[in-house]
Amino acid sequence: MIERVKQVVQECWRFLRFLIDHYVEDNCQTTAAALTYQTLFAVVPALTVTYTVMASVEAFAGLGQTVEDFIFHNVVPENVSLIQDYLRSFSQQALNLSIPSAIFLTVTAFLMLFTIERTFNEIWRIKEPRHGFQRLMMYWAVLTMGPVLVGLGIVSTTYALSLPLISDVSESPLFLQILPLGLSAATLMLIYTVVPNTNVPFRHALVGGIVVALVFEVAKFSFAFVMSRSDFQIIYGTFAVVPLFLLWIYVSWTIVLIGAELVKGLGVYRFQGSNRLESPLFQMLIVLEVFYVSHQKGQVVTEQMIRDLGPRINLEKWTEYRQALVELNLINAVERGGLVLSRDLSEISIWELYQQLPWPLPVHGVGNESDWEKSLSELFESIANRDETILSGDLETLYRTRYEDDTAGANP
After folding, report:
1. What backbone torsions phi and psi does residue 300 show, to the nearest 5 degrees?
2. Which is more confident, 367 or 159?
3. Domain definitions of the chain by residue range
4. Is the distance from CB of 47 to CB of 68 less than 8 angstroms?
5. How far apart are CA 260 and CA 19, in angstroms?
6. pTM for this model (two decimals)
7. Which residues are registered as beta bridge partners of 341?
8. CA 154 to CA 66: how far, in whole Å?
């Protein structure tokens, strides 16, 4: 029992180190600072666009105020919430701007969303961002439908709480604290799911949303506690709310980016398997075997099937591997989702595959889970001078032998 607890603690420490290393590697601290300044300039345009859209639909009248009040009461510390009156005043004045000025404000809000999307894609190592109309529609949905959905959620919850059957429960102080936390977690979960241009597992986004929402609550309380005992008011006077608001935005973006690293880490961290990975070329062959087997069965390769290879391949490099295989015309995406083999593997030899990839020829293979891995490992170990003739066999023959033996054994 003690040994098991020790292993869990060590694994948690390794995972924490993994998150810290990637947070630093992805320059998240610098990005949080950049997003802080962009948010300062974009928050008024974003509020203006939200107010304009909601005011144009009679059914949503007053919903913008509900969303705004929820954010400033549950997301922003109390000693910073005074900025709400300033922002509301600026937004109301912005509604009277000319069309060119309104377009400029909208572009400013879109630029902030572009930076957020680019940052998330860099964290997930995605090299294929959204383009054109798809990106524009996502940004517009975030600026318009996002606040509307949050507002409808608040209104629906308020109505549900007014029902006689649960009105007594809704008056519980614990319930009133959990409700805003749940809405915050749901919003964050949606951000981690939608913004990256990749398939983020729901359970990972859910864990990230809950953890970040809890951290936000702790950070909000700590921020208000510390700043209430600081001398900002003496130094800045009535303008103290501005630097405090800037500092809180920076803290918020730091927490959100840490949450993004957490969600990504849950999907790529190797909780199982040895610390030693096969070489990239060997990993590529393991991936191609999945495509070969799925092709024989008439199946589509899904992201979950690739994630199941986590103990054997570096999932963080999967985007790079996929791009390389697509460029070699070995795999292709299908409309209904997933990937399929798009080239006969008998047409490409192991040597040709090696020559078209940027990785060195491995000295040996680590895995010995199948006959082809054992035989290929022996070949790698026997190659001292990169002899091309040794790897002249095609990929289909490499994989086919194992499955022909399995078929023969199943049909005596």
Report:
1. -100, 140
2. 367
3. 2-268, 280-410
4. yes
5. 10
6. 0.75
7. 331
8. 8
* Best CATH choice for the domain 280-410 from the list 3.40.50.300, 3.20.20.70, 1.10.10.10, 3.40.50.2300: 1.10.10.10
Tokens read off for 212 = 């970040």
Q: Mention every residue, 6+ apart, whose C-beta is less than 8 A from residue 332.
A: 326, 339, 340, 342
Q: Which residues pair with 389 in a beta bridge?
A: none
Q: Provide the sign of the torsion angle of the four alpha carbons 357, 362, 368, 371, taken in this order.
A: positive
The answer to whether the CB of 267 falls within 8 A of the CB of 308 is no
For the stretch 308-346, pLDDT in tens is 887 788 888 888 898 899 989 999 988 777 899 998 998
Q: What are phi and psi of 339, to 5 degrees?
A: -130, 150
DSSP helix/strand/coil, 5? helix
- Tell me if residue 339 falls in helix, strand or coil: strand
pLDDT, tens digit, 9 for 90 and up, residues 129-152:
787 777 877 777 776 666 665 555
SS (H, E, C) 298-311: CCCECHHHHHCCCC
Separation CA 160–CA 177 (nearest Å): 16
Indicate the length of the chain as a whole number.
Answer: 412
The one-letter amino acid at 196:
P
Cα 104 from chain centroid?
A: 29
Q: For the chain, what is the total number of helices (H) and then of strands (E)?
A: 17, 2
